[in-house]
Design a protein that fits this description.
Number of strands: 10
Distance between the termini: 15 Å
Low-confidence stretches: 1-7
Largest sheet: 8 strands, mixed
Shape: globular
């Protein structure tokens, strides 16, 4: 499934236009300089105060339960849907429908799945997805997968199951043998303390054939720069600009990055 990006000729399994990230600091300045994220409304695509969030994906209506009251707990972000999840889910649909992303029958791991939007959307597009999160986040995640995908196999071209995954820990062997074709993540770049563990997990889950797609919320420029700098040690990194996204689901507070392992990096 391909190698590094070359300035518009695609990257990894993605056949659309990709802009290579040349430096972490330069990319961060570009994102904040061009997007002006602080000038745009936060969470414009979602409704975090509601107890459910509905959206069309893969020809189906997804309805995801949320737990707004859980957001008062420090560090809890997985209890509601964020704009970055909507952007990534609808990007997957848009890219798959246009033949730029071969999701059907692909193996995918979704990191920090939260309410499960990205993983459920990928399953509806034909991927076989393992949705992962921390142990205390799995109850809501399992419920959403069961409500939206279970018992309707004939109409779901892919599949979805839920598994515990703590970044930095050794993943369950089922996630590694074979390694996935895609690793997906939305709002996984949220603080500097988590960057090292996230990169350990991305390295563990990635082979030379693996394409990583991450949608990040542009909240803190130092966190984004920290992640990009660390990621560029082992991965070629590109940015997929808004012109490649689903035209109805864009946000200047979100960036979409694509990563593939550098040639010669160990699997």
């Amino acid at each position: 499934m391909g190698g590094g990006g070359d300035g518009g000729g695609g990257m990894g399994a993605y056949c659309g236009e990709v802009r290579p990230v040349e430096s972490a600091a330069g990319e961060t300045m570009l994102q904040w300089g061009l997007r002006q994220p602080e000038a745009h409304r936060n969470n414009a695509l979602v409704s975090q105060a509601a107890h459910s969030f509905s959206i069309d994906a893969g020809g189906r209506r997804l309805s995801l339960l949320q737990s707004p009251s859980s957001m008062s707990a420090p560090g809890t972000t997985g209890a509601v849907v964020w704009d970055s999840a909507v952007v990534l889910a609808k990007f997957l649909e848009h890219a798959a429908d246009s033949g730029r992303l071969p999701l059907r029958a692909a193996r995918a791991v979704d990191l920090g799945s939260g309410c499960g939007l990205v993983g459920c959307a990928a399953a509806l597009l034909g991927a076989h997805v393992v949705l992962t999160d921390l142990p205390d986040r799995l109850k809501l995640l399992r419920k959403n997968v069961q409500l939206n995908l279970a018992g309707d196999d004939a109409h779901v071209p892919g599949s979805a199951r839920v598994a515990e995954l703590v970044w930095g820990d050794d993943p369950h062997p089922d996630l590694l043998h074979p390694l996935p074709d895609f690793v997906l993540g939305s709002d996984v770049i949220y603080n500097e303390e988590a960057v090292d563990d996230l990169l350990v997990t991305l390295n563990q889950l990635s082979g030379q054939h693996t394409t990583i797609l991450l949608a990040g919320e542009l909240r803190n420029d130092a966190v984004v720069e920290c992640f990009l700098e660390a990621a560029m040690e082992d991965f070629d990194v590109g940015c997929i600009e808004q012109g490649q996204w689903h035209p109805d689901f864009c946000s200047n507070r979100v960036a979409l990055f694509i990563l593939v392992k550098k040639p010669g990096s160990s699997d």
